[in-house]
């Protein structure tokens, strides 16, 4: 498999710093950003790593001394507003790879390279160790881009976190020491105000997806055929049979010949430390693709999974098995 050379990488530090141990409240530590930076440096020899973090995320860190070290070393900057804009501008200027779980739907037309292979990377945590894998963002329609832009405009630069709450003082600059920054709220008649200045306070909600139990929908020839639950111990999907009780069969709706396109133990899906699904293609025969584009012949044309590599799966992702008649759609319940 050809892997494009990555010379510069930009980290979405707020996204990386919030870790959700399976089903628990997010744990905020800059050490996770340090670990991902180290993983990038191991993977790409001589790579230049830069990172941006939202100002409001800084106050949630349990280890702010590490953040200070990163700023002093010059590879981390604090974004006064939405770090995403700075991350994408930098990536565009430097042809950098982006490490983030954001889908950047509002920016897909401004930066079409977001949908190219090897420009966006995801990570998984397994027993405290981080693994990077290329992420293919599912192409979006113009309507989806427009909806994402409206949503972003409504939030007026407010990005947000999975659980716990951060409140931003909305006082004009100069009226409050916390104007535009995180503050302690007070609640009056179901509205929140900055406790220092009494201007309205606005909740900041981060875009990390809560790992609710993910489900897989088996789609064969375009029709939804079954809903597969993902047990905590993971699942092996492939060509089932009486001698393979460990395999969940995904070929039952195919005629005989087509089933041979799918390996006996085609792929495995596990949950990582945060309860996020991770796929590993493990079949010698056959192939799997994540959010591929399709050629004129109707066959999946790109983003083939390298056997043995761990790829994080996201809400709305589509895994395509073999020639494409069998697909698995990933959904995280409760995600909007
Ligand atoms: Zn205030």
TrEMBL record:
The keyword Ribonucleoprotein does not apply. Residues 235-291 form the FHA domain. PROSITE patterns: FHA_DOMAIN. Keywords: Phosphoprotein. The keyword Electron transport does not apply. InterPro entries: FHA_dom, SMAD_FHA_dom_sf. This is FHA domain-containing protein.
